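Predict the 3D structure for this chain.
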Amino acid sequence: QVQLVESGGGLAQAGDSLTLSCAASGRDFSRYPMGWFRQAPGKEREVVATISWSRTYKYYANSVKGRFTISKDNAKNTMYLQMNSLKPEDTAVYYCAGKAKRYDETSSDPADYDYWGQGTQVTVSS
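Done. Predicted structure below.
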């Protein structure tokens, strides 16, 4: 059974940094694309960043480009999201996701992802 477990969320002030982790079990995700998504109250789930299975291609939403960095440690089967210069508008529940097809392309559409974590809350105060 595939499980994705996020951690690292919490309260932060504007300008602070947080690092989210997504630990995978039940599958070796070194050959599968993954991504981070977020959902704020009253809004749809949106892409934050995605990473190709080879880790050579990374996509960032315009709203986080230059501030967030996605990475993956295949040896630990864990994905990360380093978040710097946090803003109040970054407040949301953050989810990690993985695709089920090996060597598949990444996607910014949440509907294309098959496995999801339970989410971790990030709250940024001004």
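The mean pLDDT is 97.
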